[in-house]
Design goal:
Belongs to the nitrite and sulfite reductase 4Fe-4S domain family. Its EC number is 1.8.1.2. It comes from Antrodiella citrinella. Its cofactor is [4Fe-4S] cluster; siroheme. Strands 2-1-3-4-6-5-10 form a seven-stranded mixed sheet, sandwiched between helices. It is of the alpha/beta class and 1428 residues long. The radius of gyration is 41 Å and the shape is elongated. Bound molecules: iron/sulfur cluster. Iron/sulfur cluster binds next to loops. The site of iron/sulfur cluster has 13 residues, from loops.
């Protein structure tokens, strides 16, 4: 066989043989021969095996031989392309590359131009003979000879081992002088390489005594066609056709070629055995063309390029067809001999890297920079073939690299031992050994070493090895990246080899199956837990991460994996089904998976065990409560727990307490039920309610039932199963409606069960008698085509119940927000029918109906905001607080929330929502020191979700703080000399102040005033200190607390104060309950304020009793009077605000109800003096002044753009880390931070000498990037999903995506730099002040928004509803022509909000009370169906 024959000669002729290993399970075809020869003791060569995927070039360089080195391999694009890099360095070495080829010379031909000699053997005899020739040639010339040979077992004869040895012994290596010195008699004075070949050829032929030619021909002489063949095509006899087989491809024997072409030949066909050639022409074709060009013949034959795939199957007919085709085709067209399917002249496709996956690649790049080596990067495919992405390939590469580095270290040791080297070189070598793993110092010293060696021309021995290995001076972070497909067969995927290799390599396995598709994707195949598999290997670092769940944990895991000495496996979750899956989907799926325990976050670091530490860290907090379910599902962690029994004990025992407590409660409830059910007919009241309205109605109904002697209770619909429901006798349902007719969240499961029952045609509720009351808003979706959404859930439920056999006792009742008395109008008519149907309508009520519990009751009963918060914090059976306490914690700056992305999922699992808390800091004017910033940053990491947000009230808020972290978080905030008291609740909230970077003096005065207002309006209760800071009560009892300003009822609703410094209305002063417009004298000193009152944003969709309102100016006051005025305005509101209806309780409604004049008179009466007349002022904008500014005090201030205020690290923009570094640099009094009410951030008070440091840090983290469009710079969004309980649609997560699209429209119309104020909120509460924006979107249902237009550019005019419900395509369809119209028809300097009013898209809103008038556009832009 040709391979064995070549292997024998290679081994005997060489003192070093390097053999490349194919991918497992295959073994090298040369290996058997090598072992055989070694066993026989025929020759003692050093055999070096190169792992599959490793770079053979560097191995050849490291193992250079002074005599002859041979390299053997089968043709593989990955290997050969890697060889290219080193061949120029090896060109002058005695080296023979024997490359076995099946039937495609594409890869091997790529090397032709780099090697001086290239031989091709098409059968076993040639292979044997050329192997001898190649060795002889390389030995005599000291140059590389490439010998490509066909893998074949054609018959041949061989010379003996001894003959080979003798033929190639040094003594016999004189060049032979033949005929004129050359085998064929031609003179080659002009080509020494050819001469050298001829010489070696002659020696070989003399030995073998059989012909061996650079080219051989057969076929008919005198014909018109000559076919030159490179490859294996059987000898065919065809009239008029001569064949020339090429064996010497480099140097190409020009004269021999020309003389082989008979003068009668008019057409030459060059047939090359190439299947996957990637460029148009082949090098042999071009060389042949050149040879023909230089021929002296007048009539030069035409040259055609042809490919052949399977040459052995070519027949005479194929050849004739080819000849015919050539005759009728232009020579520029490539032809195919034989089956064209055999030839795929295309490039190897480069695998597509899905865009989501780049998130992890970016992280790796970010962490390891130049050190990063992705050993199976898809980018290698184009150069190294499809196998380049396989783990075997990668592990081979890594192994080769590691060996090369070890070799470098050894060479450095050898050189250090050399007494002849200079002291400078000695010192550098020693230094490198000391810091070789330092990513910065190692490569730098390496460069210096190489430069020194090269300058000294010390190029022998160890020095030469060092230079050859110079690319290994830097320590690499080596990563192999794989897909979850590897998890289906860990053993066979190559992953096993990587894990078991003990090499210092990191493996990142991406799992992309979305949680919700986990049962449908690859349902027939079972995934293995790669993490557990790896952990069972012992010394392997394992981490399970999810970039969209915990960014910092991913960073931690990647760094730990890199540092771990040995294999590391990082399992990374990235759920998506298609490449264009929106990021939001990925985010939600990640949350579901992490929260449900499907994808736990953990890190397993065996090196910690050696240090006596716990090797296992569970990073997903929320999972602990759900462990039991988690174990049942046999997911990742359940198996993990089995391997760590103490973990199971710890977690399951805490779960046990929870279960015991839950069982105890359930038993108590059952007992109470038993007692009440003894002598009265039962009535079950079930509700489905998102916002609490339907729940209130249901609970009131149950209460009234009890008063009539019925055994009633009210519960969410989903608290009961269909089977349990079937056992009830009388059931009344009260349901509201969510989004576009969907069922409220806590009724969906039962509703689905009803639907399923209907689908199966079952009638399980035959014994149940029922009635339904639905609550909705007939104008929520005002378009006629949307009318069916009105009360849809109530109507659907009413129908389903009947379909499953239940008997209706009272017809469906409908409550409509639009009725005079709201839903009560319909309810009042429906409720009596229920009592009548149950026969208790005539029951005389002896007890007064208890008043429903409202916020006012909760406040007054709270003992000055204490409630049972303290007890609730200690209750470990739930992650939530009592509902009444959640109203009170708002006064302490704390909102209970739950992760709405996973609400459904948790409900399906039967567990409580994923409760956590939002904490808002009180920080008047949004000013904080760098030290405070650092603490805030730390608190977010230690207690929250690792991010924090700058809010529209110029402060920070943290999300995701779980109950057991609440107290320590507040205490840490307190340690930062900040608090959260009154950041929310029915009190004055954080006082906001214009950020004004330029007017330093005025800012200082306005800020000082804001702090005084904030302090003055602060609640005086000691509950905050008692609950959160463990401070004892001053007088020993809560009742001794007094609230001189608020009283025990506090205010009817929230209260907001803003201080603004014209001309920038960046705080939207008119959107606040109370506003102070600073009036300054010529020297910039504050002299007083124009006072505004009655601004407010909150609205309820469709409820025309609610509206946004701008503050009205009451008049001017001096600075000294202002605090007093603030207090009196608060008092008037406290005493006159509507406490019966929270929707109508803000100061704006109080003022409109009282009348502005009467309100002002009342304030003045309490003041004892009147307001002075309003002073002139001018506003010109309400957006931030981005970039650098110098204040009047000479200090420098920079306003950064922080999109929607979120401080977090993201791939490509590590703002959180950057700001932390900036705060560290400034912490010794070198600057401050200042939030803006537009959710951006100022770095302030920078001295000129500190500017370079600040600027470089801003630049390093791209915080100085202000290249965004003016639209983006002017946009803002509230938080909304997933944390805000009121959100009806996305906001913070969606607005940036919408801006991407709208800014394209702006750019197309030349408006990239024209600011349009665009805001979005997830509900009509209006936290991002949408009602003064030029364009606003207010969430109505997922993906649906009310669209508003026409707000004033500097917050001076309210906008108005333009479209009641729009989706993204509609938004873009509306804005595209409108923005174009604006670009072409606006007046000079006219803002968008003014334009849409002027040209009539929308009418101007003169005051809050007319906000609902003329909604829906004007004239041609009027939308049909929108209700005024
Ligand atoms: S506007 Fe609504 S959705 Fe947005 S944060 Fe405020 S309450 Fe939540």
């Amino acid at each position: 066989m040709s391979v064995a024959s070549v292997a024998r000669i290679a081994f005997i002729s060489s003192d070093v043989v390097v053999d490349s290993q194919p991918s497992l399970p295959a073994t090298s075809p040369f290996a058997e021969t090598y072992q055989d020869i070694s066993r026989r003791g025929v020759h003692d060569a050093t055999l070096v095996n190169v792992p599959f995927g490793a770079d053979p070039g560097s191995t050849l360089l490291r193992n250079r031989s002074s005599r002859l080195q041979s390299y053997t391999t089968t043709s593989s694009p990955s290997l050969l392309n890697r060889l290219i890099l080193h061949l120029s360095e090896l060109a002058s070495s005695p080296l023979v590359l024997h490359i076995a080829v099946e039937d495609d010379l594409s890869d091997v031909l790529v090397l032709r131009s780099i090697v001086p000699f290239f031989l091709y053997s098409r059968n076993a005899q040639e292979a044997h003979d050329h192997a001898l020739l190649a060795s002889r040639l390389s030995l005599t010339e000291g140059k590389v000879v490439l010998h490509a040979f066909k893998i074949t077992d054609s018959p041949h004869s061989e010379v003996s081992d001894d003959v080979v040895r003798t033929f190639l012994s040094v003594e016999k290596l004189s060049k032979v002088d033949g005929l004129n010195g050359h085998a064929n008699g031609h003179s080659h004075e002009e080509d020494p390489l050819l001469a050298a070949y001829e010489s070696a050829l002659l020696s070989t032929v003399s030995l073998l005594r059989r012909p061996l030619h650079p080219l051989s021909h057969h076929g008919s002489a005198g014909g018109h066609i000559a076919i030159f063949v490179l490859g294996s095509v059987p000898p065919l006899d065809i009239d008029g056709v001569s064949f020339v087989h090429l064996s010497l491809l480099s140097p190409l024997p020009a004269k021999a070629i020309l003389s082989s072409i008979s003068p009668s030949v008019t057409r030459i066909l060059l047939v090359e055995q190439l299947r996957q050639w990637q460029i148009k022409w082949t090098p042999v074709y071009l060389d042949l063309l050149s040879i023909l060009q230089h021929s002296s013949e007048v009539q030069r034959p035409t040259l055609h390029s042809c490919f052949v795939g399977n040459g052995d199957s070519v027949t005479a007919v194929d050849v004739l067809k080819l000849v015919q085709e050539a005759a009728s085709t232009s020579p520029s067209k490539r032809l195919t001999l034989g089956h064209s399917d055999d030839v795929l002249a295309i490039s190897a496709p480069r695998p597509h890297v899905p865009k989501h996956e780049s998130a992890y690649i970016k992280l790796l790049n970010q962490l390891f920079g130049d050190r990063l080596e992705i050993s199976n990067s898809p980018s290698l495919v184009s150069s190294e073939g499809a196998l380049a992405t396989s783990p075997e390939f990668a592990i081979g590469r890594v192994r080769g690299d590691i060996e090369a580095r070890l070799e470098l270290v050894a060479a450095i040791g050898d050189l250090l031992a050399d007494l002849n080297i200079t002291s400078e070189l000695h010192s550098l070598l020693s230094q490198w050994l000391a810091v070789k793993d330092d990513p910065a110092k190692g490569p730098k010293l390496g460069d210096e070493i190489v430069t020194l060696i090269q300058s000294d021309h010390v190029f022998k021995g160890a020095a030469a090895r060092i230079v050859a290995l110079r690319s290994y001076f830097a320590t690499q972070s080596r990563w192999i990246i794989g897909s979850d497909a590897w998890s289906y067969d860990v053993g066979a995927s190559g992953l096993h080899h990587a894990i078991a290799s003990c090499l210092n390599v990191n493996i990142l396995v991406l799992d992309t199956i979305p949680y919700s598709s986990r049962n449908t994707v690859d349902a027939t195949r079972r995934k293995q837990d790669v993490g557990l598999y790896a952990m069972n290997h012992g010394d392997v670092y394992v981490a399970s991460v999810a970039v969209y769940s915990s960014y910092s944990q991913v960073l931690q895991a990647l760094v730990e994996a890199d540092r771990f000495e040995g294999p590391s496996v990082v399992l990374a979750y990235l759920p998506y089904l298609t490449d264009d899956a929106p990021a939001l989907e990925v985010l939600k799926e990640t949350k579901l998976a992490v929260d449900a325990g499907y994808w736990p976050l953990y890190r397993w670091n065996p090196s910690k065990e050696r240090e006596g530490k716990d090797p296992f860290v569970l990073d997903s907090d929320m999972i602990k409560n759900e462990l039991q379910r988690f174990l049942d599902r046999q997911n990742h962690l359940s198996q993990l727990v089995r391997s760590q029994p103490q973990l199971a004990t710890e977690l399951v025992s805490s779960l046990g307490d929870t279960l015991k407590e839950a069982r105890r409660r359930r038993a108590q409830e059952a007992y109470a039920e038993l007692l009440t059910a003894i002598d009265a007919p039962p009535l079950k009241v079930l509700f489905a309610s998102d916002a609490g309205g339907a729940e209130k109605v249901a609970r009131r109904l149950a209460l009234r039932g009890k008063l009539r002697g019925l055994s009633t209770d009210a519960a969410p619909m989903d608290s009961i199963t269909l089977d349990e429901l079937a056992k009830e006798q009388f059931v009344v349902f009260v349901t509201s409606v969510a989004g576009q007719g969907e069922f409220p969240q806590n009724g969906r499961t039962l509703y689905k069960a009803l639907n399923a029952s209907v689908a199966r045609g079952e009638k399980p509720l035959a014994q149940v008698q029922f009635s339904v009351f639905g609550m909705g808003d007939s104008h929520y979706w005002p378009r006629p085509e949307d009318a069916h959404y009105y009360n849809k859930s109530g109507k659907d439920l009413n129908a389903r119940l009947e379909q499953v056999g239940a008997q209706r006792i009272v017809d469906l009742g409908l409550g409509n927000d639009q009725d005079a008395d709201g839903p009560e109008t319909g309810y009042k008519a429906w409720e009596p029918l229920i009592w009548k149907a149950l026969g208790v309508d005539a029951v005389e009520l002896t007890e007064a109906e208890p008043e429903p519990i409202t916020n006012e009751h909760i406040k007054v009963a709270s003992q000055y905001l204490r409630g049972t918060i303290k007890e609730g914090l200690e209750d470990s059976s739930t992650a939530a607080l009592a509902p009444s306490d959640t109203q009170l914690t708002k006064f302490h700056g704390i909102y209970q929330q739950d992760d709405r992305d996973i609400r459904d999922e948790r409900q399906a699992q039967g567990v409580e929502p994923a409760y956590s808390f939002m904490i808002r800091v009180r920080m008047p004017g949004g000013v904080c020191t760098p030290k405070q910033w650092l603490l805030i940053n730390q608190i977010a990491d230690e207690h929250g979700n690792g991010t924090f947000k700058i809010t529209t009230r110029q402060t920070f808020q943290f999300h995701g703080v779980i109950k057991r972290h609440l107290k320590s978080a507040i205490q840490d905030i307190n340690r930062a000399l900040l608090d959260t008291l009154a950041a929310c609740g029915d009190v004055n909230r954080n006082v906001i102040v214009s950020a004004i970077p330029t007017l330093s003096k005025t800012h200082a005065q306005a800020y000082a005033f804001a702090k005084r207002v904030s302090e003055h309006l602060l609640p005086r209760t000691s509950a905050y200190h008692e609950i959160w800071l463990d401070k004892k009560l001053v007088a020993g009892d809560a009742v001794h607390d007094v609230e001189p300003l608020y009283g025990e009822f506090y205010l009817p609703r929230k209260f907001k104060v803003a201080v603004v410094v014209p001309p920038n209305n960046d705080v939207d002063v008119f959107a606040n309950d109370l506003g102070f417009i600073a009036i300054v004298d010529e020297s910039g000193d504050l002299v007083g304020f124009n006072v505004t009152a009655g601004g407010g944003m909150g609205v309820t969709h469709g409820n025309k009793k609610t509206y946004p309102r701008l503050g009205s100016i009451l008049g001017f006051c001096s600075v000294d009077q202002a605090i007093d005025i603030a207090e009196k305005v608060v008092l008037v509101q406290r005493d006159n605000g509507n406490r019966a209806d929270r929707k109508n309780a803000r100061l704006k409604y109080t003022i409109d109800r009282m009348g502005l004049d009467e309100f002002k008179t009342e304030v003045e009466r309490r003041l004892g003096y009147t307001f002075q007349p309003e002073r002139p002022y001018t506003f010109d904008r309400n957006i931030d002044d981005f970039g650098w500014h110098i204040g009047t005090d000479g200090k420098h201030h920079f306003t950064c753009f922080i999109e929607n205020g979120r401080i977090q690290d993201e791939p490509g923009s590590n703002f959180k880390t950057g700001l932390k570094e900036l705060a560290t640099a400034l912490k010794d009094g070198k600057g401050n931070f200042r939030m803006t009410a537009n959710q951006h951030l100022l770095v302030t008070d920078i001295d000129t000498e500190d500017l370079p440091v600040v600027k470089s840090l801003l630049a390093k983290y791209k915080l100085d990037n202000l290249s965004q469009s003016a639209l983006r710079l002017s946009s803002s969004a509230c938080v909304a999903f997933p944390t805000c309980g009121l959100a009806m649609a996305e906001s913070e997560r969606y607005l940036p995506i919408l801006v991407d699209k709208v800014e394209k429209i702006c750019e197309k119309n030349g408006l990239r730099n024209d600011s349009i104020v665009m805001r979005m909120t997830g509900c009509p509460n209006g936290c991002a002040r949408p009602y003064v924006a030029e364009i606003a979107f207010v969430g109505k249902a997922p993906g649906a928004y009310a669209m508003l237009l026409g707000g004033g550019y500097y917050g001076q005019r309210l906008n108005k509803i333009y479209r009641d419900s729009v989706t993204e395509p509609e938004i873009l369809a509306i804005l595209e022509p409108m923005i174009k119209h604006y670009a072409t028809a606006r007046f000079e300097g006219e803002h968008f909000g003014d334009f849409v009013v002027r040209v009539g898209y929308i009418s101007a809103t003169a005051e809050g009370k007319d906000w609902w008038d003329r909604v829906g556009g004007e004239g041609e832009w009027k939308e049909d169906g929108i209700t005024a």
